[in-house]
Design a protein that fits this description.
alpha/beta; 7-stranded parallel beta sheet; 20 helices
């Protein structure tokens, strides 16, 4: 029986609580329209794209508008399944999520189709271990990037002729991976990202849709491709924060999306990186994710700290570092100084063991100012919990004192001490630089002072002398993940350092740096995991941050309190209430317009949407990059 009507999910932001599809009449010539076809529909006074969810003969209204087909390529059922998972978890409309999966255009006339030609070089022992493991999820740790790519290429030879996805955090890594894999695998390998032109994106989309054997090396956009024979997924540098999309919907973390994609396609998942992340360590300890090569090489570092003489003369920068800097300058060697915090931060620290004061509610480091230290109570900048300012260290029962950890104008101090032509690299500089311009411009400067923007424009450039100035500012940032993030930053800096060159750490708290940054990784992770289990935080469980907005602060607060109470009522009726914890409402430290309040839910991500999918919230974010 010929179908007459279609349910279409329009590609516009719709409230998740509203209807996600609308009924339209099929045109007379409906030969090109099937389930999951891409169409254009009239919506109000405009025409918008959409996806056909269902074909039927149910007439819902007397007068229905007619749709028209646009691209003769249907989405796959697995794409729609992944889109529905994202929309439910991230509190977004189904059609608005499906727009991420749609083809950019019609299929090209002549698509390249090549059969794989396997290079029979001898496989590395680690590749053999990956092949012989029966587990669906594995972790491979190797600090040597070139060796890691060769091992992964040897591993992929086993299933040559299928589709493989390699997710990378930054696009600059793609060319190096492609060169090694193409040389050892001799299979069609393509790079896929949003920075490519529309024709290249469309060509790869349709090659994947036709089921051609491909190795796709791409950023998050490649997750939404119409995979047909996806057998292996590799996520590179799993610890890298660039895997997380911070600003635009769906604010997805590649690690969460890849796990769901592997589950849908029954594909083998491998997380590979240069160091063991906290998430990988916890999954391996809980027997969810075995580790291949669990003993990677350590990161070399050298600590410069203020001596007693430096402190007596009130020097802001250690004399040993200034002498080293002058020596490097005499040999005309460019120096990179990583300095990511450009403002002064003061914290409460133990007068004996130097351990920082932490909030008992969320484990964030307590920072304050000299003016507020005498107040009867201080407020945590992460969860807004109050605590008494006059307290002692939990470990050695010594009094806490206020310690400044940073400098406001490091460049002016360096100019007074060392004659150098300084180049400041910030996010604004990264936006202005054109591809390939960084190495040429580097010749004009002797000293580079950079923020985290250096990670996006410098690689694969290597510096002979790399300095991390005052790492305690990042380690003591008011966030429960600050110590973990410091370890990841050190690993990212290693990518910029020349081979066998140490990373110079300039600090005022050498004991703290040795204990929290350069100490052995596994004992450090054991301590962190205990704290996360106490607080019910990732990676022990999953976390979703709910955001409530309104132009008026008082109304936003009232709305957030009402939603919080609704969540508490649902939790009281849940059969396993200990699995879920609710924190909030929190308000961001930085005032925003409209006003924003946040509620944090922690628990298994497969049951968390049941608590909030029907609530009047503005945004949900899985694995949030910040709590407030």
């Amino acid at each position: 029986m010929t179908k007459k009507y279609a349910e279409v999910a329009p590609a516009i932001p719709l409230s998740p609580r509203a209807s996600q599809s609308y009924t339209y009449k099929l045109p007379d010539d409906q030969s090109s329209i099937d389930q999951f076809s891409q169409v254009t529909v009239p919506f109000g006074k405009r025409f918008i794209p959409g996806v056909v969810i269902e074909l039927h003969n149910r007439r819902t209204f007397p007068r229905l508008k007619t749709l028209k087909p646009t691209i003769n390529s249907n989405l796959t059922p697995r794409q729609v399944k992944l889109a529905a998972w994202i929309a439910r978890l991230m509190h977004g409309g189904l059609g608005y999520t499906l727009r991420l999966f749609q083809a950019p255009g019609p299929a090209p006339q002549n698509l390249l189709s090549t059969s794989p030609s396997i290079n029979r070089t001898r496989a590395h022992p680690h590749a053999v271990s990956l092949i012989e493991s029966p587990r669906q999820t594995l972790t491979y740790i190797e600090s040597d990037q070139s060796l890691r790519y060769r091992v992964l290429a040897d591993y992929l030879k086993r299933d040559a002729g299928k589709q493989v996805l390699i997710i990378i955090p930054e696009q600059w890594r793609a060319s190096a991976i492609q060169a090694i894999i193409s040389n050892r695998l001799s299979q069609s390998t393509v790079i896929f990202s949003g920075q490519l032109n529309r024709a290249a994106i469309n060509h790869t989309w349709h090659r994947v849709h036709q089921g051609q054997p491909l190795v796709v090396i791409g950023t998050q956009k490649s997750i939404f491709l119409p995979w047909r024979q996806l057998t292996h997924i590799i996520i590179e540098e799993e610890f890298n924060p660039s895997h997380k999309l911070w600003s635009a919907y769906p604010r997805l973390d590649n690690k969460d999306a890849i796990e769901q994609l592997a589950l849908i396609h029954q594909a083998k998942l491998i997380t590979s990186s240069s160091i063991l992340s906290l998430r990988q360590y916890y999954q391996a300890r809980s027997a969810k994710n075995p580790i291949i090569n669990p003993q990677p090489s350590s990161i070399r570092s050298r600590i410069h700290h203020l001596t007693l003489a430096d402190r007596r003369q009130r020097r802001a920068i250690p004399t040993s570092f200034i002498e080293s800097l002058r020596q490097w300058r005499r040999h005309h060697q460019p120096v990179l100084i990583y300095y990511n915090r450009l403002s002064r931060v003061s914290l409460l620290s133990c007068s004996k063991c130097r351990a920082p004061a932490r909030c008992e509610s969320c484990a964030a480091v307590i920072t304050t100012s000299a003016a507020k230290i005498r107040s009867p109570a201080l407020k945590c900048k992460q969860c807004a919990a109050l605590f008494k300012s006059a307290h002692t260290c939990r470990q050695c029962q010594r009094p806490m004192r206020l310690i400044p950890t940073g400098l406001k104008k490091i460049d002016s101090l360096l100019e007074q001490l060392v004659t150098a032509n300084i180049w400041h690299i910030t996010a604004k500089t990264a936006r202005q630089l054109k591809p390939g311009q960084f190495p040429k411009k580097l010749l004009d400067f002797d000293l580079i002072i950079a923020t985290s923007a250096i990670f996006t424009i410098a690689p694969p450039h290597k510096f002979n002398h790399l300095v991390w100035l005052y790492p305690e500012q990042e380690l003591l940032y008011p966030d429960y993940r600050s110590l973990e993030s410091g370890r990841y930053t050190l690993a990212r800096l290693k990518d910029l350092a020349a081979a066998s060159r140490p990373i110079n750490l300039v600090t005022r708290q050498p004991r703290f740096i040795k204990q929290e940054l350069t100490s052995p990784l596994k004992p450090f992770y054991q301590t962190v995991i205990k704290e996360r289990q106490r607080l019910h935080y990732p990676p022990v469980t999953d976390a979703v941050r709910l955001t409530i907005k309104h132009s008026k602060d008082k109304i936003a607060q009232t709305k957030a309190d009402r939603i919080y109470q609704s969540l508490r009522d649902q939790l009281a009726e849940h059969p396993h209430p200990s699995q879920i914890q609710i924190r909030g409402p929190f308000q961001s430290l930085k005032k925003t317009a409209p006003a924003e309040y946040h509620i944090l839910l922690t628990g298994p991500k497969n049951i968390l949407p049941d608590f909030y999918h029907h609530l009047d919230i503005d945004r949900a974010e899985l694995s949030p990059h910040t709590i407030i």
